[in-house]
Write a structure and sequence with these properties.
alpha/beta, about 260 residues, Rossmann fold, globular
């Protein structure tokens, strides 16, 4: 499926967040391609998409013949266009009362999920995540996989390299300008390196571990639409030095 075909099929159901879809379409498609090549899931697997939102990602797995459970908080999953997409593509909607709750996924059966999609969620978590990961582990079949994608803290365009901000004593992490002025679906309160995430799961009192990790460039196409000398230079460098790429892809196992 090409990017244009994918976007067209999503829009055919009606209301959606078109700006978000256009910006993240490459990421959704590249993640799906990576999962297909590495995990080679048989048709009909149970896929649990956490933070499913407008079902932009869940759609790809439902259309591919998998049984998808889509979970999120808030009201987007109740939008008629989202409900229509779910009905057309074997997507079961499970609205959660909160991912910080011990019963976050109470409606999902234990040992029932083959693949958990936890993409672009880790950087938004602002609470102690132990209960969340216990719930995720509870619903996973033995040998199941959690796929995590998350922004790379050491991406060449990230705030990790904001020397001028350091010199001006303007702190680290999210700038206050973004907290006050920027409209988002939730700020990137914590961005990670691959080594940090390995440590995260070593410390987590849940039997999950990092099985595989790789730095990927999910948003290079968006950056290169308006190229300048710096962008072209660093695009070449990230091909040679993976640690400079914009995202981290990880597979987490329970065995």
């Amino acid at each position: 499926m090409t990017k244009d075909q994918y976007i067209k099929q999503i829009k055919a159901f009606g209301k959606t967040d078109e700006n978000y879809l256009n910006w993240h379409a490459d990421r959704f498609l590249l993640t799906k391609a990576k999962i297909d090549s590495r995990l080679q899931l048989p048709t009909g697997q149970v896929v649990f998409d956490i933070g499913a939102h407008w079902l932009h990602q869940a759609f790809l797995y439902g259309a591919d013949g998998h049984q998808v459970i889509a979970s999120d908080v808030g009201g987007v999953l109740a939008v008629p266009s989202v409900q229509a997409m779910a009905s057309a593509h074997n997507i079961q909607i499970q609205r959660s009362a909160g991912f910080d709750r011990e019963d976050a996924f109470a409606d999902v059966d234990p040992n029932s999920v083959d693949l958990v999609l936890f993409t672009e969620i880790l950087e938004h978590i602002t609470f102690n995540p132990v209960s969340l990961w216990r719930e995720i582990h509870r619903v996973m079949k033995p040998g199941a996989t959690v796929v995590i994608t998350t922004p790379n803290y050491y991406f060449w365009g990230s705030r990790a390299w904001a020397l001028s901000r350091f010199v001006k004593r303007m702190g680290g992490g999210i700038p206050v300008d973004e907290i006050i002025n920027q409209i988002t679906y939730g700020h990137h309160w914590k961005e990670y390196s691959a080594r940090e995430i390995v440590r995260y799961f070593e410390l987590l009192p849940v039997p999950l571990h990092v099985h595989y990790a790789e730095y990927l460039s999910f948003n290079a196409a968006n950056r290169l639409r308006a190229p300048n000398r710096k962008t072209r230079l660093f695009h070449k460098l990230e091909k040679v030095f993976p640690v400079l790429r914009d995202s981290i892809y990880l597979e987490i196992r329970n065995t």
